[in-house]
Amino acid sequence: MPMLNLIQHHPAEGPGAIADWATSRGLTLNVFRADLGQLPPVSAAPVILLGGPYESNGGPAWLEAERQWLASSLDQGAAVFAICLGAQLLALSLGGNVRRMDRTETGWTPVTFVDGQTLQVLEWHEDAIDLPPNAQLLASSDQCEQQMYRVGPTRVGLQFHPEWTAESVATLNEHFGDESPLPRGQQGSAAYATVFGWLQATLDGWWSEQSTARSALTTDHGTH
């Protein structure tokens, strides 16, 4: 069964719908808790980076270790699918920048993709990404232009949270209490299903691209 590494940064922010996607595709998800000092070995293995309530260019000491690990893994050719904090870490590693926004972007938010498609997604962030060199902007919201970007076919960053399910949000609300701006109760059940459909298709595309890239890399190495 193929393996996929996933980096989690906070006890209340797990893989959510990504776990459902992985199971349905026959993938084993290896979850590493970076906040507990867990990271996979540096390699070209594909990885998903989740979000978390930390500053991407500051934060606790373990986050510096992850930044170094990510830079080394990117040097090895790793494919990365990164969400919120993860997308900020990816942008920084590739030469972009992260800055504080005028106001926090929270709750259900419409994002518009370059093909004109619009999707209601969940947001909770106060920092924004200035894209790294050679990045392609894929989606924007009214308040934050850099909602989704790609650097090459296998490195994708999302500022929003398509992995959050109703259960994920309930866990976050329980953990953060009044600090959480996320919906309560049964708000948005249809929207969760729509976002999950989008997430599955997007992850399928990313997984296919990284498989192709790894196969090409193996072939190239075999000819030297």
UniProtKB/TrEMBL annotation:
It holds the Pfam family GATase. This is Glutamine amidotransferase domain-containing protein. Gene3D superfamilies: 3.40.50.880. One of its GO terms (cellular component) is cytosol. Signal peptide: none annotated. SUPFAM superfamilies: Class I glutamine amidotransferase-like. InterPro entries: ChyE-like (IPR044992), Class_I_gatase-like (IPR029062), GATASE (IPR017926). Residues 22-166 form the Glutamine amidotransferase domain.
